[in-house]
# Entry
Amino acid sequence: MLIPFGILYVLSTTIFREAYLFKWTADDTYYYVWLLVVLFVFLDKKIYACILSVANFIGIFVGEYLGSWIKQENMKLITEKTSAEQVWRLHLHYGALIWLCFILVSLFIIAIIHIYKKYYKGKC
# Structure
């Protein structure tokens, strides 16, 4: 279950070191996501751990490339008359927010599965 995290760490510290979101994850270790996966494995909820691991893996790649594309498109809107505040806002990279959305959606899916199993299957 932790293999995707290990792969991402190696990629973040080597090949993708210059990419914004990969650099951020390598520098600002995000152990809380890892800890959730370990907790799910410890509680024998391996499907939950898999969902969270896959969402993290996909979310980082989508966040990096979609965030870079959004930033690039926003920077095209900067003109001589653009205020400093707008320039700052248009330079933002939304990769971490996109990645976080993937994590939150995966946690929502996990909650739905848990509720379904508990109330409709009689077990969890």
About this structure: DSSP finds six helices and no strands in the chain.
